[in-house]
């Protein structure tokens, strides 16, 4: 009788069955039922458990797999809930609206695209949310840019590039916290290592959009459109220098390498201070906004949709999705099904360059067939962890590749949750704006090149 840890490795066929179930149910959910991916992962976890049990693993080992996986990411799940609170309170307190208001003051036709890239990057760094950035500045930029005669695809490309760049280097980002936590990598070490690839990508994107802007812009700034947005914002929010307090303090804490949770909590509480003392809301309002998010009625439906968001409840779906994905990946990993699959890929992961490229391509394929960016970083992360260690590489090389192949490609896939979000708020299909989202596709290429030339690849001491 084998002990669980001494069982023969599951066959590739058995190991592929849970993945096939997830892909099949996700495909039905996305293309037929228009349902969320959570249940597909639930069925995948059940199938993985049954396959492991059939192979000889005990329930205790199977349970240990999903419990350990979830435990490793519990801090990120808590951070997700706090991020929901900070989004709601920073919009309600006028911090985000002020960024929008004054950002529109500096828009000029020829430099519209690079400025939007920069504004979206700043917004995303401060909020830690690419979706919030796309849903606020992104939609506003789309209306203004079209008034300048700039194609919607180019505008969407600049918005998405900036939003996801800022998201990647922000300690408040859900995916930026989730990815290193799954592999036990320090958050700030993960962000610092990503800068080697994302900063060159940002500079290249800035140059491309700068050149593009001179060829695509026509006419003058649509002053009426800008005035309409600014009037709505100024009529519904009080602007004060106190609005700078929360983001400045949070940035200062981040620079001092304060852990993410205390930094975020400071942002929430200072946002509440501004909400009460500048916008004149009550303590009851503050508590409701923290849980349910902010809701506003300006009389302009489009603006109401942009600014009515956030709150802890807005993150419940993401948190539950993360739990399901972690449970599925944890069982697959603990019961050696991922190891079985990786063992058949030794020819693809024998060198640092091939390993990096395989990681990125695997994450991309999971994004395409799994339709969710969290799966695209969790599953390959658990698949290739051992391979990176065998080649003497620190796991921050793995987390960087996961973000490049998993997170940054997500908005380029129409049926992925991120791509679907962009369609819903900007009405531009990812297949149309993908060529313009320079940063999202050039970062994976640069990351692969670093692997092949062994540049900025941290070694295990």
Automatic annotation (TrEMBL):
Protein name per UniProt: Na+:H+ antiporter, NhaC family
Keyword entries, A-Z: Antiport, Cell membrane, Membrane, Transmembrane, Transmembrane helix, Transport
Keyword Transmembrane helix: yes
Protein species of origin: Alkalibacter saccharofermentans DSM 14828
Membrane protein topology class: Multi-pass membrane protein
Chain ranges passing through the membrane: 12-32, 39-57, 77-104, 111-131, 137-165, 195-217, 237-255, 260-278, 313-332, 353-375, 433-453
NCBIfam families per record: antiport_nhaC (TIGR00931)
UniProt xrefs under Pfam families: Na_H_antiporter
Segments forming domain Na+/H+ antiporter NhaC-like C-terminal: 162-454
One annotated GO molecular function: antiporter activity
Upper taxonomic lineage: Bacteria, Bacillati, Bacillota, Clostridia, Eubacteriales
